[in-house]
Every structure is written in structure tokens, then in C-alpha cells.
Write a structure and sequence with these properties.
Blueprint: E1 4-11, H1 17-25, E2 40-48, E3 54-62, H2 92-97, E4 100-106, H3 110-126, E5 133-139, H4 146-163, E6 166-170, H5 179-189, H6 199-216
Parallel strand pairs: 1-3, 1-4, 4-5, 5-6
Antiparallel strand pairs: 2-3
């Protein structure tokens, strides 16, 4: 383990962000668990990568966002210049240091997916052109209309495919279902390093050795 990666967990209020982190790290979430609305919490954990190594990750559990549109005006963002209020966007300081974003929606609440569409646009506009890792998690929070659930998940999959973001469906009640998305995130944040860190110096060394041999002859 070397650096500590910084990952922001975000989404609409009440979609299970805190429950996902508590279950992933501590495994202490059940149907009787109760969580108060989050202002900001920080979790630090050693998460496995797809190479079997463990890396330290700092997760920032953020306050839930309000839907950008209410009443009859619902749906995905239409205008990239749309003005959102403070409780509809991430606080600006997260965009300055985050290396990864885990965006969570509730598979039984279509409006929570709409929030992520606004959120993704806001992150893209304000992340200072740096590369970040993003993924989307659909949290199955309970039984609901099957057709509605399938429509929401299908819409999410199609949107993620267009945005080139990995999409995962999980349940905060099922700890093993959480492993894959967080292993994926940690692996992307900690790629395999090239063994030859200074290729130019290596080439220069070989040329120097060759010239020395020529002079000796």
C-alpha cells in the first residue's frame, strides 16, 4: 500500500449511500438498521484490487442531494447551463480533491437516477479537466413494482453505456454484492506501474556502455 485514494460517494438523499459503506466496511447492516441523514462522514478502509493487493481508500459519504426538478417537471437534464441550488449539487471542495466518484441511485425510485444525470454533468463541468474514475451503483432497497424496477435499471444501463461509465446493481443488505464495484474502483485508481520508470535513462545507459566498449577496442 502506498497512497490513499480519495473517493466521493454521492447521490440523492435516502438511496442508501451510508448503508452501502457501513455494510462494505463493517458488515453490520440489517433490516433493522437505522441511519440518520448524512451531513458528511469519512470512512477509511483497505480495499482489495483485482490483482489481490490491498489499497487504502478514503471514502467521503456526502449529504444526499435534492432532485433538481419537482412537481410536474421531472426527467433528465435538458440544459447544461441550468442553474441548480446548493442542495442539488455537490459541495465544490469535493471536486477539487476527489479521484473517484461512486454515484448511487435507488432502483425503486426513478427520480434518483435523474439526479445522477444532473450530478454527472455538474462533475464534468467542474472537475478542472483532471481524470477521475466514476461508477454508478443501483441499490435495491426493497420490493417494488417489477416493471418499474426493470425500467429504471434498463434506463440506467443505457445511460451508463452512453457515458462510458461502469454500472453495477447491488443490495446494501447483501455484502458480497458490494465487492465487485469497489474492487473495480480501487483497481482503476491504482493501476499496475510500469517497471521501467525512466526509459530514457535506461536507453542512455545502454548507449554509454556501447560507446565505452568501442573506445576500448
Amino acid at each position: 500500500m502506498g497512497k490513499t485514494s480519495k473517493v466521493v460517494v454521492c447521490g440523492m438523499k435516502g438511496v442508501g449511500k451510508t448503508a452501502i459503506l457501513e455494510q462494505l466496511i463493517y458488515g453490520n447492516v440489517n433490516l433493522k438498521s437505522c441511519f440518520y441523514p448524512t451531513i458528511e462522514d469519512i470512512y477509511v478502509a483497505n480495499i482489495e484490487t483485482d490483482r489481490g493487493t490491498k489499497e487504502r481508500v478514503c471514502f467521503y459519504d456526502t449529504a444526499g442531494l435534492e432532485p433538481p426538478l419537482t412537481g410536474e417537471l421531472k426527467g433528465p437534464p435538458q440544459s447544461p447551463t441550468m442553474q441548480l441550488t446548493a442542495n442539488q449539487v455537490l459541495q465544490r471542495h469535493y471536486l477539487g480533491f476527489a479521484e473517484g466518484f461512486v454515484m448511487v441511485y435507488d432502483t425503486t425510485r426513478p427520480e434518483s437516477l435523474d439526479v445522477l444525470m444532473y450530478l454527472k454533468k455538474d462533475i464534468d463541468r467542474n472537475k478542472d479537466k483532471k481524470e477521475v474514475v466514476m461508477l454508478v451503483i443501483g441499490n435495491r432497497t426493497g420490493p417494488d413494482d417489477v416493471n418499474s424496477l426493470e425500467n429504471t435499471c434498463s434506463k440506467a444501463s443505457n445511460w451508463c453505456a452512453r457515458e462510458k461509465i461502469r454500472h453495477f446493481e447491488v443490495s446494501a443488505m447483501d455484502r458480497p454484492s458490494l465487492y465487485e464495484p469497489f474492487i473495480f474502483m480501487t483497481s482503476r485508481l491504482n493501476p499496475v506501474q510500469n517497471k521501467t520508470t525512466f526509459p530514457q535513462l535506461s536507453t542512455l545507459s545502454k548507449l554509454t556502455q556501447k560507446n565505452n566498449k568501442s573506445e576500448a577496442m
